[in-house]
Amino acid sequence: MTPKHLRNPMKLASNKPHGTRMKYKGGCRCLLCRAANARYETERAKARAAGDWNGLVPVDAAREHIAQLAKDGLGRDAIGAASDIAPAVISRIKSGQSTQIRKRTEDKLLSVSKDAVSDAARVRAYPTWRQIRGLLAEGFTRAQLARRLGYESPSLQLGKKWILARNAAKVDRLYRLLMKE
Q1: Which CB contacts under 8 angstroms, 24+ apart, belong to 93-96?
Q2: From CA 3, how far away is CA 26, in angstroms rounded?
Q3: pLDDT value at residue 3
C-alpha cells in the first residue's frame, strides 16, 4: 500500500524507459528492468555494509531540534537553507504531519546550529542588552554607542525581548572591539 503523500509507482514508471529501477517498481519484470533492480539492491547492500544506512527513523529528535532552533530565532527557511532540506518538509515535521523521515534528513537537520540564523531573523535580545549594559558601565553613553553602531538617531532603538540578528551581530562586534581596547 502506497502512502497518500507518495505518487503511484505505476504512474511514475509509465514514461520511464526499460532498464530503470522505477520501471521495475512500476511492475515491469522484463530482463532489463530486473537487472536494474538487482544492480540497485547490490549497491544498497554494499552501502549498508559500509555503514551508510538511510532507513526511516521517528521524527521526534528532529522535531525537538527544530523547536529549539525556533526558540533561538531560526525560521523554517533559514533551517532549510542551512540543511538543504525543503522548507515544506520542515513544516510537515514541525506540524506533526510526518511521523518518520530518512536518517540522512534527520542528520542534516540535527547538524544545523543556532549560528545559521539569517540577518533578518529575530533573536533573543537579552545577550545583546547584557553587552550594552557592560559598555554603559565602562562609561560609554547611549548616544556614543548609537553613533558607533551607525544609527542616525542618538538613541538605541532595540527591542527588549527580540531584535534582528544583524543588530545583535553589530552590537557584538562593537562590544568585542571596545572591550578589547
Answers
A1: 93/59, 93/62, 93/63, 93/66, 94/63, 94/66, 94/67, 94/70, 96/63
A2: 15
A3: 60
**How many CB atoms sit inside 10 A of residue 44's CB?**
13
Q: Does residue 143 sit within a domain?
A: yes
Per-residue pLDDT tens for 102-115?
999 999 999 988 87
26 alpha-carbon distance from chain centroid: 33
Q: Are residues 71 and 107 in the same domain?
A: yes
Closest C-alpha among 24, 126, 121 to residue 80:
121
Domain span at residue 130 reads: 122-180
Question: Around Cβ 20, how many Cβ atoms within 10 Å?
Answer: 17
Please check whether residues 112 and 63 belong to one and the same domain. yes
C-alpha–C-alpha distance, residues 152 and 175, integer Å: 19
pTM above threshold 0.90: no
Number of structural domains (the chain) is 3
Residues of the chain scoring pLDDT < 70 = 1-5, 117, 181
CA neighbours closer than 13 Å in the CB half-sphere of residue 117:
22
* Residue 102 dihedral angles phi and psi, to the nearest 5°: -70, 150
